[in-house]
Amino acid sequence: MDAPVRKIIHVDMDAFFASVEQRDDPALRGLPVAVGSASPRGVVAAASYEARRFGVRSALPSVTALRRCPDLVFVRPRFEVYKAVSQQVHAIFAEFTDLIQPLSLDEAYLDVTDDRQGLGTAWLTAKAIRARILAETGLTASAGVSYNKFLAKLASDHRKPNGQFAVTPDMAADWIETLPVARFHGVGPVTARKMEALGIRTGGDLRACPLPFLQRHFGSAADWYHAIARGEDYRPVNPHRVRKSSGSETTFRENLVDDAAIEAGVRSMADDVWRWCARAQSFGRTVTVKVKYADFQQVTRSRTYADPVASEAALQAAARDLVRTVLPTIKGVRLVGVTVSSFPERAEESALPLFAA
């Protein structure tokens, strides 16, 4: 017999870090708020919806954010507070299902196929969860409801903030057809540009591409793109998913040849990665730096340590030392990235501060 259709909810807290700060400090309400540092090397960790209207977003350099929004108010992150709120939210989830897959401090997948609360539908379950979150934390959340994870995640973004949207099996194909491929989970900015260069701008365009064509242009990712264009995603909600690495990379507006500028870019990426490590309390032993040159040649340098890299300064130093092995360079550098891996066994158990109690 066919397996029952899954009922998946993707819950995403609205502008989580910034919303917590506005909740706790009434003077910040209604103002454009950025969580992070306003220093010249600072990066925005999160932005309120008031700030987003000016184009301020997470991972944006603070100097750029201030140019876009001169009235932007920076507040220092309080990860211990965000973690405590995340634990409150997780406790609410656990009343509705045991199948919870955290993605970060502010979002998770829930499989509610088993209607524990007897509410009748996944739609009503999502509404009940969001109402409980608001009542207990004073914060809003958005939710997407569908029969798989890919569509649920897409749907949660469709009515943000403080809304929910459902994608049913009978409407999925038509709905996907109209969406820009840049919105698809798993299609990053570089891939989206490549797809657009090939004339693939919407889900309908992607669905029209034969699999051999996608394999020729996108290699091992082709099967995934072929499937999601048809609304197919058979991945289960996995409460025990193990994260193997955490990384961040950036493409510069102009190719860099100055050693100090390249090192500053690597340090910024190391800071991005450290933010995840700090809030997840998950620390790896291997640090990898990626450098892509103007001619698209790419090199990586890695080092594995006997003990986990457990401080921001240590990660910055490791990344700096690795990038210096390819400096100086006469070729322009267009992209740098930093990744931490080799987490301890069952690292996701320590990473579950991303939503765990």
Automatic annotation (TrEMBL):
Belongs to the DNA polymerase type-Y family. The record marks F17 as: Substrate discrimination. One of its GO terms (cellular component) is cytosol. Monomer. Residues 8-188 form the UmuC domain. InterPro entries: DNA/RNA_pol_sf (IPR043502), DNA_pol_Y-fam_lit_finger_sf (IPR036775), DNA_pol_Y-fam_little_finger (IPR017961), DNA_polymerase-Y (IPR050116), DNApol_IV (IPR022880), PolY_HhH_motif (IPR024728), Rev_trsase/Diguanyl_cyclase (IPR043128), UmuC (IPR001126). Poorly processive, error-prone DNA polymerase involved in untargeted mutagenesis. Copies undamaged DNA at stalled replication forks, which arise in vivo from mismatched or misaligned primer ends. These misaligned primers can be extended by PolIV. Exhibits no 3'-5' exonuclease (proofreading) activity. May be involved in translesional synthesis, in conjunction with the beta clamp from PolIII. One of its GO terms (molecular function) is damaged DNA binding. One of its GO terms (biological process) is DNA-templated DNA replication. It comes from Sphingomonas guangdongensis. It is found in: Cytoplasm. SUPFAM superfamilies: DNA/RNA polymerases, Lesion bypass DNA polymerase (Y-family), little finger domain. Mg(2+) binds at D12, D106. Its cofactor is Mg(2+). It catalyses: DNA(n) + a 2'-deoxyribonucleoside 5'-triphosphate = DNA(n+1) + diphosphate. The active site is at E107. Pfam families: IMS (PF00817), IMS_C (PF11799), IMS_HHH (PF11798). This is DNA polymerase IV. Keywords: Cytoplasm, DNA damage, DNA repair, DNA replication, DNA-binding, DNA-directed DNA polymerase, Magnesium, Metal-binding, Mutator protein, Nucleotidyltransferase, Transferase. CDD domains: PolY_Pol_IV_kappa (cd03586). It is an enzyme of class 2 (transferase). Binds 2 magnesium ions per subunit. HAMAP family: DNApol_IV. Its EC number is 2.7.7.7.
